[in-house]
Amino acid sequence: MDFLYQGILSITLQQLVMYGIGFLLIYLAIKKDFEPALLLPMGFGAILVNLPFTGVINQNINGIGQVTGIIEWLFHIGIESSEALPLLLFIGIGAMIDFGPLLSNPKMLLFGAAAQFGIFFALSLSTLMGFDLKDAASIGIIGAADGPTSILVSQILHSKYVGAIAVAAYSYMALVPIVQPFAIKLVTTKKERRIPMKYNPKQVSRQTKILFPIVVTIVAGMVAPMSVSLVGFLMFGNLIRESGVLQGLTETASTSLANLITLLLGITISFSMRADAFVSLDTLLIMVIGLFAFIFDTIGGIMLAKLLNLFCKEKCNPMVGAAGISAFPMSARVVQKMALQEDPTNHLLMHAIGANVAGQIGSVVAGGVILNLIRMYL
């Protein structure tokens, strides 16, 4: 009978906090529909790994010996030792993306680069706050606005804050419809938000669409070799899509594979959300820094658009620059919604999608650049 009470009596205050966080993530997933495929398994996993004497993580039980927990096993196999889960997810993401709007207006690549400013801002801020360089770089990558990239980089750098970084990255991705309008209005005027943009797409040949993922992989590999796994898997997924001869695999990669890996990744990353490692002042700081990273990503893209407008005859609506973050396709939708609110005749969606897919490339390349810089420095 004492054994029945042992679990209840073993619950700590930190574990209760994690139960609260788990319930919050589940609430946001179900009630608010914020990234449910990720936040729901992460929330439930946060509860699972923090139950006293839980069987989902490795433990030594008297009379039985060492017991292997499924979530810890998945974490070691799928993330820690091989980074397989986040990389496989990139194949699915690549198979979903149409780079046509970007290829028809290549200058959108500039917005994909400028909107990574939050990464370097967050890295600098983390360093000033006392985090060591590897942890600061891992925290900074929250600004990539790309959950798999954040997990992969923080895991390769052996950051002890993988769980907090993943929660911050995915939470703020889900909150893009709230965070971005605030940041956009912070640095733009109503007149700027009403700038009209006509969409006259250039015809992009099938050959160009096929060559694009190959060329991007080679160039990224030359400039930032550590980005090859990130960029390569993303572009491999896109090459499957654009080849036109693998329709079945394209559908599988963009639906079944992506959905399965997303669910596994969400519940597996919860291993890093154990109370003893997660509940701390550092976690709170990481959440705050992550918010600043997203805000400055948005501002970086907007300020580049404003700079280009000083030299270009055909003006660009600065909100399109905000879509250069990697939160695809949410950021593009936010820009379109705000544009219609300011002027019901101004449709910016396709321009914003071009910047948004450029941001997807920019985020994975930035992740590789960060890894290269850390390797060179250390």
TrEMBL record:
Keyword Transport listed: yes
Record's keyword terms, sorted: Cell membrane, Ion transport, Membrane, Sodium, Sodium transport, Translocase, Transmembrane, Transmembrane helix, Transport
InterPro entries: OadB_MmdB
The keyword DNA-binding appears for this protein: no
Membrane topology: Multi-pass membrane protein
Subcellular location(s) of the protein: Cell membrane
Superkingdom as given in the UniProt entry: Bacteria
Membrane-spanning residues: 12-30, 37-53, 73-97, 109-131, 161-189, 210-236, 256-272, 284-305, 348-374
Biological processes, Gene Ontology terms: sodium ion transport
Any one of the GO CC terms: plasma membrane
Any one GO molecular function term: lyase activity
NCBIfam families: Na_pump_decarbB
Stated name of the protein: Sodium ion-translocating decarboxylase, beta subunit
Species of origin: Filifactor alocis (strain ATCC 35896 / CCUG 47790 / D40 B5) (Fusobacterium alocis)
